[in-house]
């Protein structure tokens, strides 16, 4: 009789284990999946992060990108990259004929136009060439309302230019602590994020 009771008990235990197994597997899966899902950043999935200069600075100072009220990825943020701008016809976009150095003084572009900067391929310093192209595209995006002026203005760009050209930092808001301003790369990254 004892063997039968053990057989029945083992059968019941096996049956309960079989019924509970899918639930345990589900709970175990959730226990693994949820922390991974919460740790994955969604920045790359949200193409084109437009923030104003001061909002972007605040986010950087807080070292967080959780200030979603400051981020608007759908309105007024459809800037064109240098690759797109360099294929446009100057008769459709006359500002492509503007002399780059007239907008950004002390540049080494001489009399090159915006289109000339965008189309240039012969440079002994690719880093300089890249930042000039980024600034040309960002300028044209503002001029032709591809990016809304609540995100940045030409005057903002002209204030940023010395930091890009001469090194140092750009202070996006008054009283920006030393070391918390934007570097040359921060400025370029800011403009690049306005391109879908």
Q: How would you describe the overall organization of this protein?
A:
This protein folds into two domains: 2-40; 46-192, no CATH class. The termini are far apart. With 196 residues, it is mostly helical. 52% of the residues lie in helices and 0% in strands. The chain has eight helices and no strands. The longest helix has 38 residues, at 2-39. Residues 6-12, 37-48 and 56-75 have low confidence and may be disordered.
Summarize the structure in short:
This protein has 196 residues and is an all-alpha fold. It has helices at residues 2-39, 53-62, 82-85, 100-103, 114-119, 126-143, 154-166, 184-192.
Number of domains: 2
Largest sheet: none
Cα separation of the termini:
76 Å
Structural class: mainly alpha
Would you identify the regions where 5 or more consecutive residues have pLDDT less than 50?
6-12, 37-48, 56-75
SSE arrangement, N to C:
HHHHHHHH
Helix content: 40-55%
What does the overall shape look like? elongated
Number of strands: 0
How much of the polypeptide forms β-strand, as a percent range? under 5%
Q: How do the strands and helices of this protein lay out in sequence?
A:
Elements: H1 2-39, H2 53-62, H3 82-85, H4 100-103, H5 114-119, H6 126-143, H7 154-166, H8 184-192
Helix pairs in contact: 6-7, 7-8
Task: Write a concise keyword list for the protein shown above.
196 residues; mainly alpha; 2 domains; elongated
């Amino acid at each position: 009789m004892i063997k039968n009771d053990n057989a029945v008990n083992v059968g019941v235990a096996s049956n309960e284990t079989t019924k509970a197994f899918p639930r345990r597997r589900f709970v175990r899966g959730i226990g693994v999946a949820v922390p991974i899902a919460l740790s994955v950043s969604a920045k790359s999935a949200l193409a084109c992060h437009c923030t104003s200069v001061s909002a972007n600075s605040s986010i950087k100072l807080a070292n967080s990108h959780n200030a979603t009220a400051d981020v608007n990825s759908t309105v007024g943020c459809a800037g064109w990259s240098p690759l797109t701008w360099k294929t446009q016809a100057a008769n459709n976009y006359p500002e492509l004929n503007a002399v780059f150095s007239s907008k950004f003084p002390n540049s080494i572009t001489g009399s090159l136009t915006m289109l000339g900067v965008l189309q240039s391929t012969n440079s002994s310093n690719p880093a300089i060439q890249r930042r000039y192209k980024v600034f040309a595209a960002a300028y044209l995006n503002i001029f032709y309302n591809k990016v809304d002026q609540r995100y940045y203005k030409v005057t903002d760009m002209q204030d940023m230019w010395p930091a890009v050209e001469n090194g140092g930092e750009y202070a996006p808001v008054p009283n920006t602590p030393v070391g918390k301003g934007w570097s040359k790369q921060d400025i370029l990254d800011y403009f690049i994020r306005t391109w879908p």
